[in-house]
Amino acid sequence: MSTSDDIHNTTATGKCPFHQGGHDQSAGAGTTTRDWWPNQLRVDLLNQHSNRSNPLGEDFDYRKEFSKLDYYGLKKDLKALLTESQPWWPADWGSYAGLFIRMAWHGAGTYRSIDGRGGAGRGQQRFAPLNSWPDNVSLDKARRLFVANQTEIWSENLLGRPVYPRG
Where is region (Disordered) located (predicted)? Predict the structure, then answer.
């Protein structure tokens, strides 16, 4: 039997995707997605501690796969990416470093410490609503530069997938 205190317990509300009770509104917490859409089903809970949600698989050995990577070739490609200006989006003073720093800053700026969501780790800037936020204007050009300047997609190479020519 639950009491009204159990309903407002953050541990209980943080784990049950079907929680229909009230939510503790602490001062200074800000407006959360849950405040706007209180009946939203929390499907993210289905992925907690699951090996099936790991795209690399259980047997993936990061150290072994990284040792296969052509590190110096990657560095060379990144240097070219930063310094070779493109006609469709000219580099500022011969370098795209500022644009990439801005993209990283905006990606990291989406992280919310209150619930651990957001951040740069999942590449969410590519998708709505982040890609249409006024703060992120022109960051689509930075993402396009990664594909325009590469002859290989390094992540595919790192994961042992076939390498297809780009461009």
Answer: 1-33
Are 72 and 66 spatial neighbours (Cβ–Cβ below 8 Å)?
no
Beta-bridge mates of residue 86: 89
Note whether 89 and 75 are within 8 A (CB). Answer: no
Q: Is residue 49 annotated as a catalytic residue, yes or no?
A: no
Query: Of 147, 139, 148, which Cα lies nearest the Cα of 120?
Result: 139
Write 35-38 long-range contacts (CB < 8 A, 24+): none
User: From first to last of its 167 residues, what are the pLDDT tens digits of the chain?
Assistant: 444 444 444 444 455 555 555 555 555 667 777 777 777 777 776 666 666 666 677 788 888 988 888 889 888 988 988 999 999 999 999 999 999 999 989 888 877 777 777 777 777 788 888 888 888 899 999 888 877 555 455 555 555 666 555 44
Q: Which domains are assigned to the chain?
A: 4-53 (no CATH), 62-158 (1.10.520.10)
Tell whether omega for the bond before 129 is within 30 degrees of 0, i.e. cis.
yes
Q: Which residues contact 15 (CB under 8 A, 6 or more apart)?
A: 45
Q: How far apart are CA 92 and CA 102, in angstroms?
A: 13
